[in-house]
Amino acid sequence: MPPIRSARNRKPPPEGFEDIEDTLLEFSNKMKDAENAPHDGKKRHEMLWPIFQIRHQRTRYIWDLYTKDSISKQLYDYLLKNGYADAMLIAKWKKTGYEKLCCLPCIQTKETNFNATCICRVPKARLTEGQTVQCVNCGCRGCASSD
């Protein structure tokens, strides 16, 4: 069995955590509500959409704070290490063409029928007029960077 972590061994959060703690608590409450929401009449994949969207919002909130120099590097690293933000998603946002990426499953080609990315990654200019698109993975309506 792994050793039990006691409260004495944990380091306190870095300076500035108190300023964003209320917002992170709101995201946590939204996540709990989304997890406990009834899913009567929804399809299997539609049940996870609110969870993906809240996780994206929370990660984007932390990334925007960091890029605007509103939080320190130590606090940013602490938030990533403790799971407040998705480090892999942020790593993709740093690359050209992925600035608006909604979730990682949308770019994974192994889980699709034709070994391609998700339909939400197609630029809106490429779609036919009047065609609306919604991602099966997360409910996104378009996250191509060229839109």
TrEMBL record:
Localisation per UniProt entry: Nucleus
InterPro entries referenced in this protein's UniProt entry, alphabetically: BUD31 (IPR001748)
UniProtKB keywords: Nucleus
Statement: the UniProt record of this protein carries the keyword Acyltransferase: no
Superkingdom of the source species: Eukaryota
Pfam families membership: BUD31
BP terms from Gene Ontology: mRNA splicing, via spliceosome
GO cellular component: Prp19 complex; spliceosomal complex; U2 snRNP
UniProt keyword Nucleus present: yes
Subcellular location, principal: nucleus
Family, per entry: Belongs to the BUD31 (G10) family.
Protein known as: Putative cell cycle control protein Cwf14/Bud31
Species this protein is from: Xylona heveae (strain CBS 132557 / TC161)
